[in-house]
Known about the structure:
The chain has one domain (5-138). The mean pLDDT is 84. It is mainly α and 141 residues long. Helices cover 67% and strands 0% of the residues.
Amino acid sequence: xxxxxxxxxxxxxxxxxxxxxxxxxxxxxxxxxxxxxxxxxxxxxxxxxxxxxxxxxxxxxxxxxxxxxxxxxxxxxxxxxxxxxxxxxxxxxxxxxxxxxxxxxxxxxxxxxxxxxxxxxxxxxxxxxxxxxxxxxxxxx
Length: 141
């Protein structure tokens, strides 16, 4: 099977189904889901931007985005293109940025703030953000 973000989304949905059916998921389960949800969203968005704009150009050395991390480049690219009506898709960039930032904060919490509990509400918020991103990027303009 060839890797693509939709396959990753399917795997994340299987994880969510397992969590929803588990009578007592652990904090580790919530942390794991939040991390997977963020990276699934990241790959969904980058695949879509590659189709719409040749986004991979953003990672090359002749780009104004070169001195930034991969994830910062993505949100900066979206922010820079919010008001450019180059495709029907641009109007969703602001929503994508907000959802990605929310998922980023969940992932950072899950991976680095081990002293702060991760709860059911964090899982459900991450799931909602990922579902929203999936709807925004998988609809053909």
